[in-house]
Amino acid sequence: MDAVISNRYAKAFFVLTKGQNKLKAMCQESEFLIEFFSNQKLAKTLLSNPVVNKEKKIAIFHNSFQGTLSKLMQSFINLIIEKGRYRDLVSILQKYIELYKKEMNIVSMEVVTTKKINESLKQRIKNKVGAQENVILKETIDKKILGGILIRLNDLQFDSTVKNKLNNVRKNFKI
Question: Is the pLDDT of residue 2 over 80?
Fold first, then answer.
């Protein structure tokens, strides 16, 4: 996965879709494809298999997603396959989503707790991030943190979990 290549293809696709006012639709299709390839390991294996030629990959992809994806997305994926960048497809789509979120001032936040949190706490957390930002909050339940809360906001992480505090105590006492 080459970050420079993913970035270039994503930026080019972003400029194209922005010019056609299709940013949101392509973002949704990108999310769909990322989800598809993360759940369908066989499809990802087929796409990255060097034995299967490019024409066959394009035909399989076209037949599989004919009614699901727009012509613009299918053309973009055909281009990626023709240029031999099919191994980077998921990375390119992820980068495109990042560009879309940046353009729309959308902040992704993950909240990890041991049990489901109520709506008022979710709203307070969103308000702390900032009212000017559109916040997409993903809630994850993880019993391994033992208690407390872990908040991931883009590249930042606020860790106020019991597990983290116990690990800090262990480090201090060298247990």
Answer: no
